[in-house]
Structure formats: structure tokens, C-alpha cells
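Please go through the sequence line and C-alpha cell line underneath and see whether the fold suits the sequence. See right below:
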Amino acid sequence: MEEKKEEYSLVAYIFGILSIVMAFFVPTAGIVFGIIGIIQSKRNKKELSAKAKKLSIIGLILSIILLAVSLVLGWYFAKSSISSIAGL
């Protein structure tokens, strides 16, 4: 039974790393991986699980921030390109 719990903390650790990496490329995937990593890290109370939870939270926060920045920039550039096309 101990091996199964160790697998959960390893899976959570991997999802934490993936959430940080994916935050810079596809922020929505980073959010999903961060949430999965947090859920998996709650299944075990080992040191690796605590590190995995920290990584998942960092990845989740980065993903949310970068998603918000990309949405604001997309809105800004879309608005400026529409106004330049319309001649306003």
C-alpha cells in the first residue's frame, strides 16, 4: 500500500512541473495540470507531496496570471487593429 501512496506523490510532482511549464505555452492546460496536481498531492502527506503541492500552486498562479495577460493583450491588439481598419 505504501508504493501506491508514493506513486500519488510522484504523479502530483510531475503535474506540478507540467503546470509550470505549460503556463508559458498554454495557460489553460497549466490551470488544469495545477488543479490535478493539487488534488493528487492531498492523497499523501509525504515530503514529496508537499513539494508537489507547492509546485502545483505556483503553476496554477502563473497560469492564471499569464492567461489574464494574454486575454488583455489580445483584447488591446484586436481593438487597435479594428480601429485602424475602420479609420477611427
About this structure: The two ends are 67 Å apart (CA to CA). The first helix runs from residue 2 to 25. The chain has three helices and no strands. The helical segments are 2-25, 27-41, 47-86.
